[in-house]
Protein backbone atom coordinates (compact mmCIF):
# COMPACT_ATOMS: atom_id res chain seq x y z
CA UNK A 1 0.00 0.00 0.00
CA UNK A 2 1.53 3.34 -1.13
CA UNK A 3 0.92 5.72 1.78
CA UNK A 4 2.75 8.90 0.79
CA UNK A 5 3.73 11.16 -2.10
CA UNK A 6 6.30 13.87 -2.69
CA UNK A 7 9.13 14.62 -0.28
CA UNK A 8 8.17 13.99 3.38
CA UNK A 9 10.42 16.21 5.45
CA UNK A 10 11.14 13.76 8.27
CA UNK A 11 12.55 11.09 5.97
CA UNK A 12 14.69 13.66 4.13
CA UNK A 13 15.92 15.23 7.35
CA UNK A 14 16.73 11.98 9.14
CA UNK A 15 17.44 9.45 6.39
CA UNK A 16 17.62 5.74 7.22
CA UNK A 17 18.80 6.10 10.79
CA UNK A 18 19.40 2.47 11.72
CA UNK A 19 19.62 -0.85 9.89
CA UNK A 20 17.20 -3.58 10.97
CA UNK A 21 17.34 -7.15 9.67
CA UNK A 22 14.76 -9.15 7.78
CA UNK A 23 13.08 -12.06 9.58
CA UNK A 24 14.62 -15.08 7.85
CA UNK A 25 13.86 -18.00 10.16
CA UNK A 26 10.89 -19.23 12.16
CA UNK A 27 10.49 -17.60 15.56
CA UNK A 28 8.30 -17.59 18.66
CA UNK A 29 7.28 -14.81 21.03
CA UNK A 30 4.61 -13.70 23.45
CA UNK A 31 3.32 -10.80 21.31
CA UNK A 32 3.92 -10.19 17.60
CA UNK A 33 3.47 -6.54 16.61
CA UNK A 34 2.78 -5.97 12.92
CA UNK A 35 3.80 -2.43 12.01
CA UNK A 36 7.06 -0.52 12.26
CA UNK A 37 5.79 3.04 12.55
CA UNK A 38 5.27 5.27 15.56
CA UNK A 39 2.15 3.34 16.68
CA UNK A 40 3.96 0.02 16.56
CA UNK A 41 6.90 1.56 18.42
CA UNK A 42 4.72 2.89 21.23
CA UNK A 43 2.84 -0.40 21.62
CA UNK A 44 5.95 -2.59 21.43
CA UNK A 45 7.69 -0.38 24.02
CA UNK A 46 4.71 -0.55 26.38
CA UNK A 47 4.59 -4.35 26.15
CA UNK A 48 8.34 -4.96 26.35
CA UNK A 49 8.77 -2.64 29.32
CA UNK A 50 6.17 -4.69 31.21
CA UNK A 51 7.77 -8.06 30.68
CA UNK A 52 6.31 -9.29 27.40
CA UNK A 53 8.58 -10.93 24.85
CA UNK A 54 7.86 -8.96 21.68
CA UNK A 55 8.77 -9.37 18.02
CA UNK A 56 8.05 -6.51 15.58
CA UNK A 57 7.70 -7.01 11.83
CA UNK A 58 7.34 -4.27 9.22
CA UNK A 59 6.83 -4.80 5.49
CA UNK A 60 8.85 -1.69 4.48
CA UNK A 61 11.83 -0.07 6.14
CA UNK A 62 11.11 1.02 9.69
CA UNK A 63 9.21 4.31 9.83
CA UNK A 64 8.76 4.44 6.07
CA UNK A 65 4.95 4.30 6.02
CA UNK A 66 2.62 6.95 7.41
CA UNK A 67 5.05 7.99 10.15
CA UNK A 68 7.33 9.56 7.54
CA UNK A 69 4.43 11.71 6.30
CA UNK A 70 2.82 12.55 9.67
CA UNK A 71 2.74 16.20 10.69
CA UNK A 72 2.77 15.12 14.35
CA UNK A 73 0.62 17.67 16.13
CA UNK A 74 0.22 16.21 19.62
CA UNK A 75 -3.17 17.31 20.89
CA UNK A 76 -5.87 16.13 23.25
CA UNK A 77 -8.36 17.86 20.95
CA UNK A 78 -10.20 15.34 18.80
CA UNK A 79 -11.48 16.18 15.31
CA UNK A 80 -14.99 15.57 16.68
CA UNK A 81 -15.98 18.24 19.20
CA UNK A 82 -16.52 17.17 22.79
CA UNK A 83 -20.06 18.54 22.61
CA UNK A 84 -20.79 16.31 19.60
CA UNK A 85 -19.30 13.21 21.24
CA UNK A 86 -21.43 13.98 24.28
CA UNK A 87 -24.59 13.96 22.16
CA UNK A 88 -23.60 10.63 20.65
CA UNK A 89 -22.12 8.70 23.57
CA UNK A 90 -22.93 10.74 26.65
CA UNK A 91 -20.94 13.46 28.35
CA UNK A 92 -18.96 11.07 30.55
CA UNK A 93 -17.65 9.15 27.52
CA UNK A 94 -16.85 12.36 25.65
CA UNK A 95 -14.78 13.61 28.57
CA UNK A 96 -13.15 10.17 28.91
CA UNK A 97 -11.94 10.29 25.30
CA UNK A 98 -10.57 13.82 25.59
CA UNK A 99 -8.93 13.11 28.93
CA UNK A 100 -7.24 9.97 27.59
CA UNK A 101 -5.60 12.09 24.88
CA UNK A 102 -4.67 14.79 27.40
CA UNK A 103 -2.98 12.23 29.62
CA UNK A 104 -1.11 10.85 26.60
CA UNK A 105 0.88 14.06 26.07
CA UNK A 106 2.90 13.91 29.33
CA UNK A 107 3.44 10.19 28.67
CA UNK A 108 4.91 11.11 25.28
CA UNK A 109 7.05 13.77 26.93
CA UNK A 110 8.46 11.19 29.35
CA UNK A 111 9.14 8.77 26.52
CA UNK A 112 10.78 11.47 24.40
CA UNK A 113 13.03 12.43 27.30
CA UNK A 114 14.11 8.80 27.68
CA UNK A 115 15.21 8.39 24.04
CA UNK A 116 16.26 12.06 23.62
CA UNK A 117 16.75 14.23 20.56
CA UNK A 118 13.31 13.80 18.94
CA UNK A 119 12.27 17.49 18.83
CA UNK A 120 9.63 17.18 21.54
CA UNK A 121 8.39 20.51 22.85
CA UNK A 122 5.33 21.61 24.75
CA UNK A 123 3.14 24.01 22.81
CA UNK A 124 -0.25 25.69 23.02
CA UNK A 125 -3.08 24.88 20.62
CA UNK A 126 -5.15 27.60 18.98
CA UNK A 127 -8.47 26.49 17.47
CA UNK A 128 -9.88 29.45 15.57
CA UNK A 129 -13.29 30.03 14.00
CA UNK A 130 -13.06 30.05 10.22
CA UNK A 131 -16.38 31.86 9.94
CA UNK A 132 -18.45 34.00 12.27
CA UNK A 133 -21.26 31.44 12.38
CA UNK A 134 -18.81 28.95 13.94
CA UNK A 135 -18.29 31.15 17.01
CA UNK A 136 -21.32 29.91 19.04
CA UNK A 137 -20.28 26.28 18.48
CA UNK A 138 -16.72 26.98 19.61
CA UNK A 139 -17.93 28.86 22.65
CA UNK A 140 -20.18 25.93 23.59
CA UNK A 141 -17.17 23.65 23.14
CA UNK A 142 -15.11 25.98 25.33
CA UNK A 143 -17.75 25.87 28.07
CA UNK A 144 -17.86 22.07 28.18
CA UNK A 145 -14.09 21.73 28.25
CA UNK A 146 -13.84 24.38 30.97
CA UNK A 147 -16.54 22.59 32.97
CA UNK A 148 -14.42 19.45 33.04
CA UNK A 149 -11.16 21.08 34.04
CA UNK A 150 -9.39 21.55 30.72
CA UNK A 151 -7.23 24.68 30.73
CA UNK A 152 -8.78 26.75 27.95
CA UNK A 153 -9.58 30.40 27.31
CA UNK A 154 -11.32 32.48 24.64
CA UNK A 155 -9.55 34.98 22.39
CA UNK A 156 -11.71 37.58 20.65
CA UNK A 157 -10.87 39.09 17.27
CA UNK A 158 -8.51 41.84 18.40
CA UNK A 159 -6.62 39.69 20.89
CA UNK A 160 -6.26 36.97 18.29
CA UNK A 161 -4.90 39.35 15.70
CA UNK A 162 -2.51 41.00 18.15
CA UNK A 163 -1.10 37.76 19.57
CA UNK A 164 -0.96 35.62 16.43
CA UNK A 165 -1.61 37.82 13.42
CA UNK A 166 -4.64 35.67 12.58
CA UNK A 167 -7.67 37.42 11.14
CA UNK A 168 -10.60 35.41 12.56
CA UNK A 169 -13.71 36.09 14.69
CA UNK A 170 -12.47 34.19 17.75
CA UNK A 171 -10.56 31.16 19.00
CA UNK A 172 -10.14 28.61 21.79
CA UNK A 173 -6.65 28.67 23.25
CA UNK A 174 -5.65 25.39 24.92
CA UNK A 175 -2.59 25.22 27.13
CA UNK A 176 -1.84 21.55 26.52
CA UNK A 177 -0.27 20.44 23.22
CA UNK A 178 3.14 19.43 21.93
CA UNK A 179 5.16 18.59 18.85
CA UNK A 180 7.53 15.75 18.00
CA UNK A 181 9.50 14.26 15.12
CA UNK A 182 7.50 11.03 14.61
CA UNK A 183 9.93 9.33 12.26
CA UNK A 184 12.94 9.93 14.49
CA UNK A 185 10.97 8.86 17.56
CA UNK A 186 9.97 5.56 15.95
CA UNK A 187 13.56 4.81 14.95
CA UNK A 188 15.00 5.62 18.36
CA UNK A 189 12.37 3.57 20.17
CA UNK A 190 12.93 0.56 17.92
CA UNK A 191 16.71 0.86 18.22
CA UNK A 192 16.37 0.86 22.00
CA UNK A 193 14.06 -2.15 21.87
CA UNK A 194 16.50 -4.01 19.65
CA UNK A 195 19.39 -3.21 21.98
CA UNK A 196 17.43 -4.63 24.93
CA UNK A 197 16.73 -7.89 23.10
CA UNK A 198 13.44 -7.32 21.29
CA UNK A 199 13.38 -8.65 17.75
CA UNK A 200 12.72 -5.81 15.27
CA UNK A 201 12.54 -6.83 11.61
CA UNK A 202 11.76 -4.80 8.52
CA UNK A 203 11.19 -5.82 4.89
CA UNK A 204 9.12 -8.67 6.35
CA UNK A 205 5.62 -8.79 4.88
CA UNK A 206 2.91 -10.80 6.63
CA UNK A 207 0.72 -12.56 4.08
CA UNK A 208 -1.52 -14.75 6.24
CA UNK A 209 -2.51 -15.15 9.86
CA UNK A 210 -3.86 -18.34 11.41
CA UNK A 211 -5.59 -18.15 14.78
CA UNK A 212 -6.54 -20.71 17.41
CA UNK A 213 -7.80 -20.42 20.97
CA UNK A 214 -4.19 -20.74 22.16
CA UNK A 215 -2.27 -18.45 19.82
CA UNK A 216 -1.56 -17.14 16.34
CA UNK A 217 0.82 -17.95 13.50
CA UNK A 218 1.96 -15.28 11.07
CA UNK A 219 3.14 -16.43 7.65
CA UNK A 220 5.51 -14.11 5.78
CA UNK A 221 5.94 -13.65 2.06
CA UNK A 222 9.21 -15.63 2.30
CA UNK A 223 7.59 -18.62 3.97
CA UNK A 224 8.81 -17.83 7.49
CA UNK A 225 6.45 -18.54 10.39
CA UNK A 226 6.20 -16.37 13.48
CA UNK A 227 4.25 -18.04 16.29
CA UNK A 228 2.90 -15.91 19.13
CA UNK A 229 0.43 -16.06 21.97
CA UNK A 230 -1.00 -12.74 20.75
CA UNK A 231 -0.72 -10.49 17.71
CA UNK A 232 -1.24 -6.74 17.43
CA UNK A 233 -1.93 -5.11 14.08
CA UNK A 234 -0.43 -1.63 14.34
CA UNK A 235 0.12 -1.20 10.62
CA UNK A 236 -1.64 2.14 10.39
CA UNK A 237 -4.02 2.58 7.50
CA UNK A 238 -2.90 -0.71 5.93
CA UNK A 239 -4.48 -2.59 8.86
CA UNK A 240 -7.89 -2.23 7.26
CA UNK A 241 -6.94 -4.73 4.55
CA UNK A 242 -7.04 -7.46 7.20
CA UNK A 243 -10.71 -6.85 7.99
CA UNK A 244 -13.71 -7.86 5.90
CA UNK A 245 -15.69 -5.05 7.55
CA UNK A 246 -15.01 -1.46 6.52
CA UNK A 247 -14.38 0.52 9.70
CA UNK A 248 -12.89 3.74 8.27
CA UNK A 249 -12.42 5.65 5.04
CA UNK A 250 -9.01 6.45 3.62
CA UNK A 251 -8.33 10.01 2.54
CA UNK A 252 -5.30 12.06 1.55
CA UNK A 253 -3.86 15.04 3.39
CA UNK A 254 -1.27 17.47 2.02
CA UNK A 255 1.53 19.39 3.68
CA UNK A 256 4.56 21.55 3.08
CA UNK A 257 7.38 22.88 5.20
CA UNK A 258 9.37 26.09 4.86
CA UNK A 259 13.03 26.83 5.30
CA UNK A 260 13.89 28.18 8.78
CA UNK A 261 12.12 31.51 9.39
CA UNK A 262 12.90 34.55 11.48
CA UNK A 263 10.88 34.02 14.71
CA UNK A 264 9.67 37.62 14.50
CA UNK A 265 7.65 36.71 11.40
CA UNK A 266 5.71 34.03 13.29
CA UNK A 267 4.16 36.20 16.01
CA UNK A 268 3.01 33.80 18.74
CA UNK A 269 3.01 30.79 16.41
CA UNK A 270 6.56 29.91 17.42
CA UNK A 271 5.17 28.08 20.45
CA UNK A 272 1.51 27.68 19.44
CA UNK A 273 0.08 25.34 16.83
CA UNK A 274 -3.02 26.60 15.05
CA UNK A 275 -5.94 24.93 13.30
CA UNK A 276 -9.34 26.07 12.11
CA UNK A 277 -12.99 25.10 12.46
CA UNK A 278 -13.66 24.64 8.73
CA UNK A 279 -13.55 21.09 7.36
CA UNK A 280 -11.14 20.13 5.93
CA UNK A 281 -9.05 22.34 8.16
CA UNK A 282 -5.82 24.25 7.73
CA UNK A 283 -3.21 23.65 10.44
CA UNK A 284 0.24 25.01 11.25
CA UNK A 285 3.03 24.27 13.67
CA UNK A 286 6.75 24.98 14.00
CA UNK A 287 9.76 22.67 14.20
CA UNK A 288 12.78 22.85 16.44
CA UNK A 289 14.91 24.43 13.73
CA UNK A 290 12.42 27.27 13.13
CA UNK A 291 10.54 25.95 10.11
CA UNK A 292 6.79 26.27 9.73
CA UNK A 293 4.90 23.12 8.80
CA UNK A 294 1.52 23.67 7.13
CA UNK A 295 -1.07 21.02 6.31
CA UNK A 296 -4.61 20.49 5.14
CA UNK A 297 -6.46 20.47 1.80
CA UNK A 298 -7.68 16.93 2.58
CA UNK A 299 -9.58 15.10 -0.13
CA UNK A 300 -11.10 11.69 -0.77
CA UNK A 301 -8.37 10.60 -3.22
CA UNK A 302 -6.94 7.19 -2.33
CA UNK A 303 -5.23 6.43 -5.64
CA UNK A 304 -1.45 7.01 -5.32
CA UNK A 305 -0.87 8.28 -8.87
CA UNK A 306 -3.66 10.87 -8.58
CA UNK A 307 -2.44 11.92 -5.13
CA UNK A 308 1.13 12.25 -6.45
CA UNK A 309 -0.03 14.60 -9.20
CA UNK A 310 -1.80 16.91 -6.74
CA UNK A 311 1.02 17.63 -4.29
CA UNK A 312 2.40 20.83 -5.84
CA UNK A 313 -1.04 22.28 -6.61
CA UNK A 314 -2.24 21.54 -3.08
CA UNK A 315 0.87 23.19 -1.63
CA UNK A 316 0.10 26.36 -3.58
CA UNK A 317 -3.45 26.33 -2.24
CA UNK A 318 -2.16 25.95 1.30
CA UNK A 319 0.13 28.96 0.80
CA UNK A 320 -2.90 31.03 -0.27
CA UNK A 321 -4.96 29.83 2.70
CA UNK A 322 -2.22 30.85 5.13
CA UNK A 323 -1.96 34.27 3.50
CA UNK A 324 -5.71 34.74 3.84
CA UNK A 325 -5.78 33.74 7.50
CA UNK A 326 -2.52 35.48 8.44
CA UNK A 327 -2.09 38.41 6.02
CA UNK A 328 1.42 39.26 7.22
CA UNK A 329 2.75 35.74 6.60
CA UNK A 330 3.81 34.90 3.03
CA UNK A 331 5.42 31.47 2.81
CA UNK A 332 7.52 29.54 0.32
CA UNK A 333 7.45 25.72 0.50
CA UNK A 334 10.83 23.99 0.73
CA UNK A 335 9.40 20.46 0.64
CA UNK A 336 5.83 19.31 -0.03
CA UNK A 337 4.21 15.91 0.36
CA UNK A 338 0.96 14.05 0.87
CA UNK A 339 -0.01 11.06 2.95
CA UNK A 340 -2.87 8.68 3.42
CA UNK A 341 -4.90 8.95 6.59
CA UNK A 342 -8.18 7.40 7.66
CA UNK A 343 -11.31 8.81 9.24
CA UNK A 344 -13.80 6.96 11.36
CA UNK A 345 -17.42 7.98 11.45
CA UNK A 346 -17.17 9.44 14.95
CA UNK A 347 -13.53 10.55 14.98
CA UNK A 348 -12.54 7.94 17.58
CA UNK A 349 -9.94 5.18 17.13
CA UNK A 350 -10.34 1.43 17.36
CA UNK A 351 -8.27 -0.55 19.86
CA UNK A 352 -8.99 -4.16 20.66
CA UNK A 353 -10.05 -7.48 19.15
CA UNK A 354 -12.35 -7.80 16.16
CA UNK A 355 -14.86 -10.68 15.98
CA UNK A 356 -13.29 -11.82 12.71
CA UNK A 357 -10.14 -13.03 14.51
CA UNK A 358 -11.07 -13.52 18.16
CA UNK A 359 -9.40 -12.43 21.37
CA UNK A 360 -5.83 -13.40 20.42
CA UNK A 361 -5.55 -10.66 17.78
CA UNK A 362 -5.69 -6.99 18.73
CA UNK A 363 -6.03 -4.07 16.34
CA UNK A 364 -4.54 -0.64 17.04
CA UNK A 365 -6.20 1.73 14.59
CA UNK A 366 -5.26 5.21 15.77
CA UNK A 367 -7.26 6.92 13.05
CA UNK A 368 -8.05 10.62 12.97
CA UNK A 369 -6.26 13.92 13.26
CA UNK A 370 -4.33 13.11 16.43
CA UNK A 371 -3.18 9.58 15.78
CA UNK A 372 0.01 9.74 17.86
CA UNK A 373 -1.92 10.83 20.94
CA UNK A 374 -4.38 8.02 20.28
CA UNK A 375 -1.53 5.51 19.99
CA UNK A 376 0.03 6.68 23.25
CA UNK A 377 -3.35 6.38 24.96
CA UNK A 378 -4.08 3.04 23.29
CA UNK A 379 -0.81 1.27 24.10
CA UNK A 380 -1.72 0.68 27.79
CA UNK A 381 -5.20 -0.38 26.64
CA UNK A 382 -3.74 -3.02 24.30
CA UNK A 383 -1.53 -4.29 27.13
CA UNK A 384 -4.50 -4.49 29.49
CA UNK A 385 -6.50 -6.51 26.95
CA UNK A 386 -3.60 -8.93 26.42
CA UNK A 387 -3.20 -9.29 30.19
CA UNK A 388 -6.97 -9.75 30.57
CA UNK A 389 -7.37 -6.70 32.77
CA UNK A 390 -10.12 -4.10 32.69
CA UNK A 391 -9.40 -0.69 31.18
CA UNK A 392 -11.65 2.41 31.23
CA UNK A 393 -11.31 2.98 27.46
CA UNK A 394 -11.98 -0.63 26.42
CA UNK A 395 -15.63 -0.18 25.46
CA UNK A 396 -15.48 3.30 23.96
CA UNK A 397 -12.52 2.46 21.70
CA UNK A 398 -13.79 -1.02 20.77
CA UNK A 399 -15.29 -2.29 17.52
CA UNK A 400 -18.46 -2.92 19.53
CA UNK A 401 -19.51 0.69 19.12
CA UNK A 402 -20.06 -0.01 15.41
CA UNK A 403 -22.96 -2.26 16.39
CA UNK A 404 -24.33 0.39 18.73
CA UNK A 405 -24.28 2.93 15.88
CA UNK A 406 -26.25 0.72 13.46
UniProtKB/TrEMBL annotation:
Please provide the record's keywords in A-Z order: Oxidoreductase
GO molecular-function terms, A-Z: oxidoreductase activity
**One Pfam family matching this protein:** DAO
Q: According to the lineage, what is the superkingdom? A: Bacteria
The record, for InterPro entries, names: FAD-dep_OxRdtase (IPR006076), FAD/NAD-bd_sf (IPR036188)
The FAD dependent oxidoreductase domain covers 30-381
Gene3D superfamilies for this protein: D-Amino Acid Oxidase, subunit A, domain 2, FAD/NAD(P)-binding domain
Q: Which GO terms describe its cellular component?
A: cytoplasm
State the protein's name: FAD-binding oxidoreductase
Amino acid sequence: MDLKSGYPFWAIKNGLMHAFPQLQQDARCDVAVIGGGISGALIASELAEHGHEVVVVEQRDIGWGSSAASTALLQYEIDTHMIDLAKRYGEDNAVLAYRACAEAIPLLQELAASVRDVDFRHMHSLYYASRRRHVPVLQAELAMRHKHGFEVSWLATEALREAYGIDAPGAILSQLAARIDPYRTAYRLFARLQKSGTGVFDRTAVMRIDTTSRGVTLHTADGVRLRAAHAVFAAGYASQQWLDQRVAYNRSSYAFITDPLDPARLHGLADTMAWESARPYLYLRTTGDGRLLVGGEDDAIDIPARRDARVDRKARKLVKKVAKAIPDLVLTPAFAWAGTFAETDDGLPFFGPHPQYGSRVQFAMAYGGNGISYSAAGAPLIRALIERRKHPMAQLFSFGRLDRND
